[in-house]
Amino acid sequence: MVYNHKNAKAMSNMQKRCSLILADGLLSCQGPTYTFYVPGVGQSNIDHCAVSKGLLPSLADCMVYEEDALNMSDHLPLGISINVTNLPSLQKTKHIGR
User: Fold this and answer.
1) CA-based angle 32:33:34, to the nearest 5?
2) Taking a C-beta distance cutoff of 8 angstroms, is the pair 76, 67 a contact?
3) Spatial CA neighbour of 11 closest among 54, 45, 59, 55
4) pTM of the model
5) How far is CA 15 from the centre of its chain?
6) CA distance linking residue 83 with residue 60, whole number of Å
7) 5-51 pLDDT, tens digit each
8) Which of 82, 79, 81 is nearest to 63 (CA)?
């Protein structure tokens, strides 16, 4: 995949550095097909849920939540479900910047 925008490049570099996967890119998300919308400007899918590769077997579901009067943002909430009975055993985690 080619990333031309500096934020997309930064996200891609962070994913590689931290061994993260975009869960919402692997699962078929329910709900709207976008997470950002501004009338007259457009819509896009710019919000993501990043998880460690070790959580992949435990991912169960992905959801983009519909617009709601309580949501004061121009972004829609995005969530994932993790099956805790399938969680891998806890291992040492690499903390960046500590």
Assistant:
1) 90
2) yes
3) 45
4) 0.67
5) 11
6) 6
7) 888 888 889 999 999 988 887 777 888 888 988 888 888 888 888 88
8) 79
